[in-house]
Amino acid sequence: MTSGDETGVVVGVGASADGGPGHVTGYITVPNVDAALARATELGGSTIVPKFSPDGSAQLALVADPEGHIIGLTEA
Question: What is the reported pTM?
Fold first, then answer.
C-alpha cells in the first residue's frame, strides 16, 4: 500500500488468495467509509470487504460497482 501523501496515488498490490494472478486495487479517499459504502449500495454496488483497520489507524473497505469492478475506500 502506498500513501497518497508520498506518491499522490493510493494503490494496493497483492497476490490472489486462491493462487491465481495477483491484483491491483485503487483506493479513493472518502470523508466517511460507512457513508460511502451505504451510498454505493444504494446505487447498485455491493460491499466486498466491510470497513476494517489493518493497523489500528487507517479505515479501509472494498466495494464493487454494479458491473463488479472493485474499488478500495479509505477514510480521510
Answer: 0.72
